[in-house]
Sequence to fold (470 residues):
Amino acid sequence: MPNLVLGPVIGGLSHTTVNLWGRADERALLSAWLGRAPDLSDARMVGSSLLVEAAGFSGKVQITGLKPNTTYHYALTLNETPPKPENAPFPSFTTAPPPQQPTDFSFAFGSCFLPGAVNDGATLRHLAQLLPQHDLRFLLMLGDQIYADLWWGNGLGKIALTEEDYRAVYLHTWGHPAWRELMRRLPAYMILDDHEVDDDWAWTSADRYEGRIPWWDALVRKFKGFPAEARRLSHRRIQAALQVYWEHQAMHAPPLLLPPDGVEFDRPLILPGDHSHFAYTFEWGGAAFFVLDTRTQRVYKHRLLNRAQWKALEDWLLQVKDRYPVKFIVSSITVLSDLWGDFTRDRWNGYPDERRRLLHLLAANEVQNLYLLTGDLHSAHAIEVTLQTAGKTPVKVWEFCSSPFEQKPSKLLMALAKSVRVHPITDYRVHFRYSEPNFGVVHVHFSEGRPSVRFEIYGDSGPAKSAVEA
Ligand SMILES: [Fe+2]
Fold:
């Protein structure tokens, strides 16, 4: 008998669709049941999906034709027996409001989860506790949803090298009870950062033939006696990591803007010279989101996004600028925070021309009410910058950062933070920083069509640690 070993995850939620995701331990038929009653006494089977070995027995049931702003209860089963009402209550999700309809809402975001590193899931348990109070509609997960390379914390005891290894790391990390309990209740949108593949990795050339990791990682791994394949980053290993990334994080996302060939068979091909990426957009009432893929087209010291993703971002910005009162650009890595002595150059600071290009894009188009959401730093912050424009009104851009859910907080990094002083930034202000495990909560409020946005940071217990009205 097959078992559901990971999931459910509520992915790709829009005002009419949802992807219910799960992973089994063997070949199975995944069925999704939906109803309006909390005990699912009215449930009907809305779809099923065959979980096959080629996709690591992961799959999603894609459900369409839902009503906006409507709460549905659901169950995933590996047989065709309807869920029993005595097992109530069943988890639920609420669909998004119709696009462009300004409706108040709140969501959470964060990044970096290495269970056992600090507080054994306490941050996620705290987030689950606060769901009713804040009526959180979804969670944005900004990367490092696993740490494939941290042999001491990934459940493998070694560095992930093959598809089977990467799948085992997901099983270990996402199998944590705090993670599973949260994910079945809170719809999620995910994007990768570096550790889904390896630490601070990038391609060595635009051919995407092979990758590289920092020399100090290679040195430590040599010292530890890890095999040669763990001390370099072969195309084969990146392909394996991104295959398993697809299986767990991307297959249930909203439709990708330019997906790699092969995703229709759940086998994305990471081909040399290919332009595809994993970026996507979604809307939530009066708010539009662009979720950047800052990793899979990155070429070390050469480019962060490829031309295809830049074009997609620019087109999106012009489309949503006036139609959506609030805009969020989601970047796994920080745009507006620099560090003294940051020799890794793994963030937007390593690609200064592209960072200026992004800021100029916002300034030239006078994009108001735009917020950057980011993670990665193992500390949180709220930063506000003013951009000089050709017109009379300057543009204000905010960066909200939340990291980590659970990882060693970097107090030193926080002390080394420095401001970004590049054109067209004329004013730079840090509202707060926080360096314990945390998640962010964003409240979007509309009054007479005018938006206001509040950002709060929560630790693993207690009230908000910091907050700012942006
Ligand atoms: Fe991280």
